């Protein structure tokens, strides 16, 4: 019945029904395919936008965390700040990833927050520990290290767990996508079969489908043409942007050159305004005129400072900044710094302290103007931002290789300090730590930028260490050259007072430490106190012990008891056997200084900040001593501390020394102090002499035939009667390991060779207490050993310094030259013979003897070569000993010829 009805349908309807069925079937297939594809796309999108980024970020954070740990370990091990900066960068990456993960992984927000918290806790502690390890101060405790390890393990475990969870989610999503794909494949096969059947039956539908397909292809081609056109437009835009960037760089270069030229041109009229306003201020003016001109002058100077900063920045940006290479003395740079900033520091009641390490070469080659500019800027900022306390500028030698010298400067203050966020903003043009500081203190913000770039041009780097409220420390290095003749520059040294008791009093710990370091470099015996009451106790105690204070150096401005009050207390102490001379240290430019100079209780006044040389000159002036004059043909009489000489006069010492020259030098020096001397030529003979008669002490050479000094000392200490006998080593070897060997053997102290009279008398006064009191005339204020007389002319030999070491006795020096000529002419041959017979101990002793005697004469090159030979023989490194012996033989021949000529000239 139904079929009949279909047959009765009109042909037109039949023709329409067939494609309609085909269309419906095809639409059904498309709908199903769209649903399948849509579901698959949603899964793929989820994988792309969430699951994979989460998994990838979790894995990357674990790798970055390992990088953070490695960077901090490297920073702690090497002390390089760059590793700390690397750790900060990786830390920022980790935290940035966690911020992104919170946005896409909302299901695990709490876990991500916990990971961020754990990481921050670990990094804060690890960064602090690394900084301590770099500074090698306040090293972390075991508890901190354990806490650090626990934090690291906890974070690693949590991060690994989170990554594993993300990986499981990722795998599950992939599994679901694969399942859907497999289902779609099965269903698609069924529908496809049906569609093939329909297409086979319904030809018209197929034809129509082909037509539709052709239209789709045509539309796609049109779309591709459109996309290609858009790409070509983008490429043209990129080319235009590149050309614009090149034009901008050229414009920037032109701008820099223009600013450099314009700033330079503006300086000329500004200098005229400043100069003429200054001259006008010196004339008679009304009050209003003077006020106007003073403001013009001050404003012009401020404007000139800004122009100078702009000029420097412009020069650097334009690549026109060139450094000078001139010879200069660092002391002059530091003195200029003190002069410029001294008044500003005094106006704010700040301590301005300047310290230069003694090992810094005195003369350098570089650009002193630019170095001074950097120091003035950094120290000026320190003074500006320090409301109370002190500013310390120090210079030290960081590295020296040949003529190349790396200097390290530190500007430390007790000012407002900075946070790490503030530090990160430094060194940017026209920028200060924050805008409030700019408003309060003023400034263009160019100074630090210029300083940083100048330092980089000088081959150095700059960094900052600071804590808010606790002050800041700006540290920078520069590369300079050491001048060839820097070692030959005359250096002032005391001709007496070596070993003198000096008391330094200052309430500033840094100032006291610098003062103590300077005084000890003068061979003084230094005591310190940080207040007046402790200082008085120290003076009384020293007087009671028989070693009175000879000089008191007092800071004027101290709490409770100021320097002037302390000086008057010292002056009124009638029980003192020797009243100390008083040197008062006062702040720069203080108005009361003239009153101090005229005060009868004060012997001298020194203004802060001061350099080591100025302190030296002032002390020398107080004691009425001339300074040592370096030169070939003139020497002043040597003087020694009378109090120390008085302590050891009348002592009877046993001198144990095998070399005739060393015997003569030591004997005559000791006898000049009023000491009786008995000589033993080796340790065995010394033990015998000690059993025959009593001595107040022993001066023991280390290397001697028959029995050396250490063996002899051990033998002596076995005798209970000699257990407390002072034994002082005489040696050219003063390394720590050798000093420990002296002490372990039972010696009390050591004196280096060649002998220094000041060190000798100071060491003797420390240990020797004469048992016999004899009548002797009173000592004069100073002890003069010899009058000035011509010195022998020996090229490359430091004759003047050597004569001073033997008490200024030129006759004795000539006598030593004669004995050296007689005894050391065959030194090299004797060493060769000893080595040939495998008697290395004798060869080492002969080299040691040559080294010591050369040092006594001032022949430093020969002394150094002999020391090198001695060490090679001692360590068994005999490969190149023969070449070294050849150099020594050649140097010895030259010295012998010069000695022969000097002796002949003296005889006339």
Secondary structure layout plus pairing:
Elements: H1 2-7, H2 11-78, H3 81-104, H4 109-135, H5 142-201, H6 203-281, H7 287-317, E1 326-329, H8 330-347, E2 351-356, E3 363-366, H9 368-384, E4 390-401, E5 404-413, H10 420-425, H11 435-441, H12 447-457, E6 462-466, E7 472-482, E8 501-505, H13 509-521, E9 525-529, H14 532-544, E10 551-555, H15 563-571, E11 581-586, H16 593-598, E12 604-607, H17 612-622, H18 642-648, E13 652-656, H19 660-672, E14 676-680, H20 683-692, E15 697-701, H21 709-717, E16 727-731, H22 736-745, E17 749-752, H23 757-767, H24 799-805, H25 810-823, H26 827-836, H27 840-857, H28 860-875, H29 881-907
Parallel strand pairs: 2-4, 8-9, 8-10, 10-11, 11-12, 13-14, 13-15, 15-16, 16-17
Antiparallel strand pairs: 1-3, 3-7, 4-5, 5-7, 6-7
